Please model this.
Amino acid sequence: MSGHSKWSQIKRQKGAADAQRGQLFTKLSKEIIIAARQGGGDPNANFRLRLAVQKARDNNMPADNIDRAIKRAVGGGEGSELAEITYEGFGPAGTSVIVEVATDNKNRTVAEVRNVFTRAGGSLGESGSVAWNFDSRGVINVPRDGVDADDVALYAIDAGAEDVQIGDETIDIYTGPGELEAVKKALEEQQVAVDAAETARVPKTTVQLDEKAAIQVLRLVEKLEALDDVQKVYFNAEFSDDVLAAYTS
Model:
């Protein structure tokens, strides 16, 4: 499992603390607004919105907050000025980093993102500088508890999954972006519990980091994710479970 996948699981476990700060709900609202603005306010007809709403529910976001976000998007009011922007940069030890943001002030956001990279010893790059090393894919995470991993892998592959990686705690299923919904639905029809399902940027090649460099990269990623406008951060670093455990302890 890549370093990014390990870190994503840790973030989900930390979701309650993030929600207490209110930051997680703000990010979830932005994703709902953008999804509804692009594909309409009906989750049944808008898969991106359906994923965003489900993620909000999984993180205990109140239904009223979800409804307000959708209404703001389709009503053309607050939130209609949000823009999606992708920044690319280089972190410690030559790692590649992609930062996806949703912002109503591009100048403020790029300054904040650049400052985090600089303070971490990295640099903000030009468009295309690292994106070539990432593929857009659907990613589904299934907990190992109580399931037969081989059966889950067969269900996923039969439904159109491209790859399945069986780890100690989760089964990570990779699909083409267009097949994410079909594979997720097929798993659920087989009573397989899906912990998370989303489109993500998956690195084609990774770099293995020692403990010092791994901690530097994790600090960079965490500081980027702490910015209000940042929605997602992807990176191509690999590191051991022991390093991640030590960092998050």
